[in-house]
Each structure stands twice: as C-alpha cells, then as structure tokens.
# Entry
Amino acid sequence: MNETYIPTDTPVDLTNCDREPIHILGNVQSFGSLVAISADWIVQHASKNCGQVLGLEAEEMIGLPLKTFLPAQTIERLRQRLGANSHENAVMRLFGMDVFGDGRLYDISAHQSNLSFILEFEAKSRGAQHDELAIVTPMMRRVAAEKDLLGVSQAAARQLRELAGFDRVMVYQFGPEGDGTVIAEAKAETDTETYLGLHFPASDIPRQARELYKRNHLRLIADVDDDVSPIYPQFSPEGEPLDLSLAVTRAVSPIHLEYLRNMKVRASMSVSIIIRGELWGLFACHHREPLYVDYERRTAIELLAQFYAYELERREAREVSETIGRAQKLHDRLMMSLSSGDDLATGFRGIAKEIGKVIPYDGIALYLGDRYVTIGVTPEKEDFQTIVRFLNTAAASRVYATDHLVARLPSMAHAVDSSAGILAIPISRLPRDYIVLFRTEVARQVTWAGNPHKPVEVGSFGARLTPRKSFEVWKEDVANRSASWSPTSLRAAEAIRVTLLEVVLKLSDEMNIERKRAQDQQELLIAELNHRVRNVLGLIRSLVAQSRKSSRTIDEFSSAIDGRIQALAKAHDQLTETEWSPIAFADVVNIELKAYLNEDRERVSILGTPIKLAPEAFSTIALVFHELVTNSVKYGALSAPHGRVTVEVDKAEGGMVRIAWSETGGPAVKPPERRGFGTTIIEKSIPFELKGRASMQFALMGLQAEFHIPERFVTEIKAHEVPAVPVEAPAPAHASASLSGTALIVEDNMIIAMDASDILEDLGVDNVHTASTVAEALRIIESHQHSFAVLDVHLGAETSLPVAQVLRSKNVPFILASGYGSQSESLAKFPSATIVSKPFTAESLTSAVMGLWKSG
# Structure
C-alpha cells in the first residue's frame, strides 16, 4: 500500500523524484514577488538562466520580482490560466510548455494556497507527439464492458497497469470500519506473490491521509531513496505553515518511505477513487525499481480512475433503481397478501417469504404488542425482548442494522448462533413493534497484511505508526459476526419499513372503523332488544287482559294464552331462520297476525301478485311489518272490532315492487308527537338496507304506508307454486293422555321448570325431579331411576351434554329443549333426540313427551 501519512510535527519537505522541485511563487494581489523557493531551484535554474541572482543566498531571493526568474510571456500565460480557475481546490495544468524560451519543455501544475500561488515545474521526459486521450478511450470501453464489481475492478487494474507501467496495480476498497481489502490485482505472470484478498487494518491509512486523498487524487513516489529538497522559508510572513495539500511533488512521511522499503518497493503511486465526494477506495501501484510517470500521463491515469468511479456509481445507481423496483413489487405483493383483512401475525409467513426474496436471512421474527412470531433460526423470546429494549434506545422509526450485535449488546454473547447480526425494521409509530431479520455467526477467516491489534509501537521515529518488518500473512478468525448487510439490503429494508408502516396504519384504521361499526351495531341491537322486550311484555300483558275478557273458563283462558305466546315464538323463529332460501311474503304477514288475530284473520287482506322475498331482504321486511302489525293492534285499525287492513302487492316503475299497507275502520289517526324506534324502522329500514323507498301518511281514516323494493330482492310466485292454505291440526287432547313413572327436568329457569313440572304431572307422571346444573342433575340420576327426562340444552355457562350422555348410557330416553331452534350448532354434539323449541306450551311439550313415550 502507498501511505501518505504526514505527522503534524514533521517539517514540510519536498522531494524532486527526478523532477523539478516545488516553487512557491508570487502573491495573490501582485503575482509579482517571490514568497518562498526550494533550494534545488537555485542550483538548477537560477544559476543557469538568471545571472543577476547568481551567488545570492536563498533568503536574499525572497521578495525579488517574479520576472527575475521567469520570462514575462511565461508569467502572463500563467496569470491568464490561473485566473480561469473556478474554485478553491482547482489545479491549473500545462503540458510541454517552453518556460524559458530555450526549447526545454516543462509540465506545470499551479494552484492557489491561501494568499499565495504554488507553481510546480517538471521537466518533460517525452516529446509532445502523443495523445493520451486516444490511449485512455479504448481502456474505458474495456472497463465498461464488464458485468459486476469484481470484473470492472479487475479490468480497471489491468488497464491502469498497462497505462502506467507499474509491476503491480491493486484495487483497494475501504470497509465500513475503515479497514480495507484488495479486491482486484494486476501483476506480471512471473510474479508469484499476491496481495489479492488481503485485509488491511484501518490504521494503515489514518484519518489525516484519507482526508488528503479526498483533495489530492494522485500521489507519485518515483524513488523512495531520492533526496529531499527543503523549502525556504517554511512559514509565510504571517507565521502560517505552508499548505501543500494539493502539491503534486510534495514529499511524504519518512515513516511511509520505510514502510515501502520493507515491502521491497522502490516506486509507488496512489490514485483516489471518489464516489459522491467520499473516498471509496484507492488504486495502489507498486514497482520494484524507480519509475517516473510524467504529469501528462498521470493526468490520463486520473481520468481513467474517475471513469472507473463513474462506472461504480452508475452501477450502484442502477442497483438502487432495481432495488426500488423490487421494493415496489414487494410493496404490491405485501399489500395484496394483506388485503384479505388478516392482521400481520396471521399473514406473517407470507410477508417473511416476500422479504426473503429481497433480503437474505437465516431467521425472521415479528414482535407485535407482546406477540412473538418466528420463522427460521431465531433467539428465544426472553433474549429477543432484551434486543427489543436495546432497539428502543436507538433512533426511533429508523432501520437498525449491525453484523456484530455482541459489540453493541454484550449480554447477547450466548446467542451468536442465532443472532450474530440483526436488521430491525420498526413497523409502528411507537418504539415497540418490529420485524427483525437474523443472521447467524459466520466464522470468517480474514487474511490480514499484519496484525490489526498492534497499530502503534515505539520505533525509530518515536511513538507513531511503525512499518511492519515482515509481511507474512497474519490470519485471524473473526468470531461473533454475521455476514454484513449490504447497502442494497438496507435500502430495501427502508422501503419495507414504509410499506409495513402503511399496512399497520391501514389495518389500524380498518380496525378502528370495524370497532366503531361493531359499537354502533351493538348499540342498535341493544336499543332494538330493549324495544322488543318492552313490546313483548306489553303484548303479553294485553293478551292476558283480552283473553281474560273473552274467556269463560280458566282452561279456555290458559289455552288461549298458550296458543298466542307460541305464535309469537314462531314469528321470532322465522326472523332468525338460517335456511338461506326465499320465503313467501304472505307468510311474513300471516305469522305476525297469528299472534294477535285468531278467528278474525279475514280482517287482513293480501291482494295482488304473490311474491317471495330473498333471504337478504326477509329480515328487514319482516321487521317492518312486525312494527306495522304491532302498531295497528295497539293503536290502529286492528285495535277496533270492525277495523280492516289491506296489503297490496304490484309492480312499479324503475324495476321496483310496490307494497302498500292501508288501514280503515279504526280510531281516528293523528301523527305521533314523538317518533319512536318503531316508526324509524318503518321509514328507514328499507331505504337504508335495500336501497328502496318508504313513505308513511297518518290519514284521519287510518295509517297509509307504501314501500318500493328493488326487483332483485323479489321473486314472483307462479300459479302452480302458490301453496294451499295450511290447516292447523287441532291441539292434542292431553287431558286424555296418561303417563306414569318418574321424570327428570334439567332447566336453569325456575319458572319454566315449574311450568314443565306442572305439565308433566297433569299428564300423570308420578314424580318429577328438577335440577338447574349439570352437577345437581348427575347427583339425582345416581340416586333415582327415571322413565324419561327433559333437558334444556343451554344452562347458563354450561350445556346439559354430560347429562344427556349419562342418560344415553343408562338407556333413559330424553327430550332436548332449545331456544335456538333445531338448527343450533351446539345440538350437533348431543346424542340424537326429540327436540322441542322454547318457549314450549302444554301442547308442544305434551306432543313431544307422548311421542317419546309411545316410541319407548
């Protein structure tokens, strides 16, 4: 390697390296007087061309006009070229200039340093008949033809070696920690020694040298044993040291010269590789004999190095573009995979698969709230929580990556087999939720050119960097590290972070919307339930009162009440039916009417086209007509002995079906002072749920309502499909039925249990045992023999399944009573049995028991 480290306490020296030495000439304001000069200039030029200064000492020359040393035309040309420099670090270059007008040609480098100009003259070693650009152009094409980083680097090393003539040319790339690796090498075939793949410690090129490489892109040492020519004076009139950062012939540290001698290198050249203003790496050139490369050829070498850097940057930009494209595709795939509404945990396996297409990993984990979902090689949850606490101390909402977690979190030393390196992607606004990618330990055998743990020791130059006396390969097994996360992976991770944050926010918004919808629905259901309960209680009270007036005996009164309550239960069953098939509209009306009108059913007429209602519309329309019937019975036409209701069904314009409700013969009607929940259902349900229309008119002679239902919810019933009016079978004469033996009733409602017990005793059962829990029922079964049992399926927080199983094992027949109907999923677990719907009546329970008794 070619190091240009200059300790701060080293005098500023110059080496001629077979060239003319540095000259510090002129003054910014006047460009006319000498500020400083090198000793070699006095000997080689002033003595030959400037007789007027012959015999003067160096200090006597300081302050003399510049024309004392250079012809006027040369000074004027230099002035014009320097005036065209566009920025502070600009260097003016002239090739093959006849400085003294005597035919001798010089390459000139000039730049401004503080208040002075620095002019450097190198005698031309070649003629003027050559075209450096013509040589470099095909070399650039060869470099650009390569496919990948290593190919481009190897081609660039070969072309630069051909251009410069060094024995060995290496491409040296800096690592993230300042260390570096030789990634390409061009050398003679006969040279068996290689530096390819060698790893160099960061201390080989200290910070000062790196900063210098960023300003001065090419440094040539033509001969490590050449003499040094000092500058006089070493300080400006203001007492400031001379800044020689941009000087091309500036001497290097004697420490570095010794460093090169120990490598048996007599000439070296370093060319900076700058990408986006940062030092990416170097071309390091070595030669075993002194080698001078003239300034014009060095400029061509700089051009080739700049083209190589451009190629790297272009390929990196293309890689970034491809990464963005892959990230966008990943975004689309993730959004598609999560569009089903699943949360991140549910869809995590798909997410992990998509991430793995872009970023390789050994394991991946999702930490969402307190949920820990893992795939592949990952640490235990307790260890992961340690990592999460550490991540929460890092910058919020930023991707965090390290290939050496133990160095940042020593407590994780025991888990390097699963988490030597991590890449954490925050997926929430709070520093809490992450997707973390893990890489396991890679015991890499890194080849070092020297021991990186001994960068400083006391040597002949004091306590400073000492050249290594031997360059035998020193190998170190690097433990506790994973494969590093590439810049491409980090860019992809950032894109994933944005995508997943968008997904999380979207799911959160959807969850909030769903929660609000559920809350609104719950409030509506509670209000509806409250309304229904009040209506049912009021209705039952009215039924009791009306039945008492019209009944002549207790038995007649009891029978009427039982029948009407059973009619209400059947209407409710129709509303909650799970058979997903069309239902006749007339059934909706008749079921509601059956609870109120028995012999007076002809007071309600259904006219027009018979229709069926689609399942999607049935519950809505049933609810509306339940309210119409209820209101009519309580306040309208059906509350009066001679009142009538007409329901007409016909087709309307715009693909609608019209249903009209008309009441006559009732009490005088006036609009309600307050619109209750029932009125809201009548007016709003069909427009809101079915996108139809509804209207109500409180006419004096009776309520008029009209509804328009979209055609897609209605099916016309053909003539041959109209069912015959069913004739209800008479209630069984349970008075003549006769049972005996002992019965068991398992029911958690005391009143219903007492009612069922009375019914069974009326049928002749000798003894009835009741239980409200499974445990109590099992104790009774163990103590008594039973002829049959009636089991309520749902007993609060438990079911009667264990009781049914014990009864089945004892061959005791039983009936199941359920308020959820015969289609309840919970009944699938029970042994097959007769089912009676709740609330049961004397007729329904008697029918079920007598059927069970006869089959037994």
